[in-house]
Amino acid sequence: MFSPRRILLHLVSWSLAPTTILAAPDPTYNPSLPFRPNNVTGLVDLYSWVGSYYNGTTRIEFKPLIGETVNNSVCDNQHDKELAVEFESLLGVTEKLLNTSQNAVDSLLTVWQQDTNFSSWLSAETPSLRPSIEWFLESTRGMYQDPVNHTYQYLGEAFLPDGLNYTLAPTKHAPFNLTAKVTDNISGPGSEPSGYRLGNFEVTLPSCKPGENDQFFITIISNEWPGIDGWKWTDPLVNLQFDSETANVTLSGYYAADSSNSDSGSDNTRGQITISFLGFIDTYHSDILVNNSASPTWIRTVGFGNNSLNIGYSNHASAASCAGSRVTSWSVVITTAVLVVFAL
Fold first, then answer.
1. What gap in Å lies between CA 286 and CA 295, rounded to an integer?
2. What is the Cα Rg of the chain in Å?
3. Strand spans (E) along 9-77
4. What's the pLDDT at 321?
5. What pLDDT does residue 48 have?
6. Predicted pLDDT of residue 96
7. Contact between residue 36 and residue 49 where contact means Cβ atoms under 8 Å apart
8. Residues of 164-187 as b/e, b for ≥16 C-beta within 10 angstroms?
9. Which of 78, 97, 106, 169 is positioned for an S-S bond with 143, CB 3.0–4.6 A?
10. Which residues contact 263 (CB under 8 A, 6 or more apart)?
11. b/e for 49-78, b at 16 or more Cβ within 10 A?
């Protein structure tokens, strides 16, 4: 659950694995796919894909505008209050996972508890199954490599469309700027899956009783929500900007907050929500982003032993020997988050 702690993060990169080894060449490596070779120990599955990874902080801000319906007002203890929480986060911006995708990249933004033990996570495990994850934003359904039989698979429904249909602003170089409107969320109690899920989360916010807090169940509104007929709201808008040093993700939209401690609904609110991520490149887990390209492109380095700053660095390009040619660079084939929205 969310808690109202604030975490000020100023690190440029972290190491989540204490020891790593670049092993023998990976005979299962397929250079046509967006996966890294399986020859680096300690590389947990959130770093499975070719791309750039950023460590930083996600700030979530709430601005209550109405009560449970348009006929209810916000109570005095919540009215005109700055309601915000911050969490440590990881953003992955990668080559696209779906061949059918028209996105230039995929993205996955994950918001997680402090002091998370990444080494305890299993492979091929969707973020929503990890108890340490508070919330995630992914651009498409995750595709993973099975570490045992080396097959590639999607988790859940494999043929769901992209959750975020990114539009890449025209450019000749980094930073890259992408935007997407979310119009196919699963919203409202009892609604049937219709495509993309922004996900729900819990957060501690002030209740209507002075000096007291409640746990609120937060839903980002898209499509429909009961009781808000006549209230002017818009679908969520996501913006992603990144280069070889920093990345920003912003989600602007509207939310429904339902208190877990109020049967009458008097504490429930609807209003504006802004989710902002600011992160710095994690060179330990990142391939090299080509800055002078019109579309995001990476030089594959993790698992190839050609970048001394990477996890599992070795003096010889071990994975390259099994990949044959095409080792120097890899273009995104139009491309979580993040998700990859990574969500995260």
1. 17
2. 21
3. 51-66
4. 44
5. 85
6. 86
7. yes
8. bbbebeeeeebbbbbbbebebbbb
9. 97
10. none
11. bbbbbbbbbbbbebbbbbbbeeeeebbeeb
Give the Å distances, CA to CA, from 195 to 88, 89, 141, 163, 187. 28, 25, 10, 7, 11
- 152-154 and 143-145 strand pairing: antiparallel
Segment 85-114 mean pLDDT: 85
Domain ranges of the chain: 45-331
> CB neighbours (10 Å) of residue 86?
18
**pLDDT of 82 above 70:** yes
Nearest-CA neighbor of 76 among 211, 255, 227, 202?
211
pLDDT tens digits, 310-328? 998 875 555 544 443 233 2
Joined together, the tokens standing for residue 117 give: 């033990």
Report whether 75 contacts 304 (CB < 8 A).
no
Mean pLDDT comparison of 29-33, 110-114, 197-201, 262-266, highest-scoring range: 29-33
- What sign does the dihedral 45-47-50-54 (CA atoms) show? positive
Sign of CA dihedral 298, 281, 101, 40: positive
Closest CA to 99 of 138, 136, 140, 127: 140
Q: What residues have CB less than 8 Å from 25, skipping those under 6 apart? A: 37, 39, 318, 319, 321, 322
Q: Is the pLDDT of residue 253 over 90?
A: yes
Q: What is the mean pLDDT of residues 190-219?
A: 75
Query: Does residue 340 surpass a pLDDT of 50?
Result: no
Q: Taking every pair of C-alpha atoms in the chain, what is the biggest distance, in angstroms?
A: 68
Average the pLDDT over 150-168 and give the result: 64
Helix (H) or strand (E) holding 322: helix 320-323
What is the number of other CB atoms lying within 10 angstroms of the CB of residue 153?
Answer: 12
Nearest partner of 255 among 275, 278, 230, 276, judged by Cα: 275
